[in-house]
Amino acid sequence: MSAKSKVYITAAVLVLLGFGLTIYKNLVLGFPMLPGNQQAVWTVEAEINFLAGEQPIIATLALPSSPPNISVIQEDSASSGYGFAEENTNSMRRGVWSRRSAKGEQALYYRLQVYENSSITGSEFGFVEQKEYTPFHEPFETSAISLLSQVREISANSRTFTSQLLLALNAEAPGQNVIMLRRQVDSEEDLAELVTQLLSMEGIDSRVVSGLYLEGGRRRQQLSYGIEVRDGDSWEYFNLQTGVTGFPNRFLLWQRGGKSLLEVSGGKNSSVLFSIVENYRSTRELPLNANNNQGAALIDFSIYSLPLAEQNAFKSILLVPIGALVVVIMRLLVGIKTSGTFMPILIALAFIQTTLVAGLLIFLTVVGIGLFIRSFLSRLNLLLVARISAVIIVVILIMAIFSIISSKLGIESALTVTFFPMIILAWTIERMSVLWEEEGPKEVLLQGAGSLLVAIIAYLCMTNSVVEHLTFNFPELLLALLGVILLLGQYTGYRLSELRRFEPLVEQVEIAEQKNADDTKKTS
Question: Among 145, 165, 139, 144, which Cα is nearest to 154's?
């Protein structure tokens, strides 16, 4: 295998790996591809109230367990004087509050923050045992049998049977059987229980489910009910009023199965009400805080696991490859000459700290003064190491004097001169001075202008908000960037700046074409 083939294969692997990891973080973990996006976050609070009678208190509340299409950011309990623990039985979560003794009105609180995430499928844990079927009393039993017989005729399987049953129970002009059965229904929960009982008569496994519609500003709300029907190895959600399948948007599934929502031992007159508040947060923060993503390898072993100080440092470090790509393109494809390979990148990093205009003025001033002093040092016939060391000291003195004068004049932007890498400035002054002596001032101006041009382009790319967002949140893209640089390293064609060499040839071709055209006219 040739070296060129190895480069192409390596580059292809790097590009695919980089983009693959990026797509995974975006689609699965929920990281946004663009900066500044915000997403609605709902704070849901359950308030439990009951009357205690000076005896041990145990209150249990069903808690959401892997709700579909919803990511949980955090959850907590706030109840003064009560202990709190969590029970997890048969994939069902319940919060347990306990206290040795209490008297009077009591209030317990459970709070969680959630946001909508379509990549979360939720958990379809096994069938929850339903209470044993109890026959209806007459004449309800007869009405139920008759209604089931009618629905059976217009359905083909458990799914269509459930849909048709719900449509019949919610018809605008219901039949006598439906009217009779609905006399037992006083609430949405009663309707859900009625449907599951009818489905049980038909031999269809079903269970009651309840949840909350996530709408901001809702106070003292109760759960909305629906049903789930077993369809093979999975469960299908049905809207009680419409018979439509599939969980609705912005719906927080709270409880599955027939077990009571709230149980209180040692108290009476218990109730639970829900309040919902909506706010907005950056979409980048949500996947990092969501409980669903805890333990994800790309997060646990990533920059996000570092302390904040180190994360801020990497925000600048991860921009360096962008500057390297700009240098590669400008030198290999465009053909711009620069003073050193990495000097434009370091200057661009300094521009990020100083702003572009202030950075240009500082750089030109320091380098200009440094070149003047370097010309004096060249007359002393110093050795290279001593000369460069002297230039470094001179650069530091220039920067110090520059900062002091700027401070006295109140020019705050000039104080950022310290962000320029002094070693690179010293080496730049030395290279330009040697180049001046060997090639003349024209070459110095050419390479100096090229370096500043590349640095400015790199600065504009590195300070782009989209680039900053992608490099920090998707550092895997640097693998793809490495692959692109490897491919550019194989380029051996003409650079754009070299095309001017062919201008005389183009002129000769145009003259020849014009002459041929004139000869053709004369001949004709």
Answer: 165
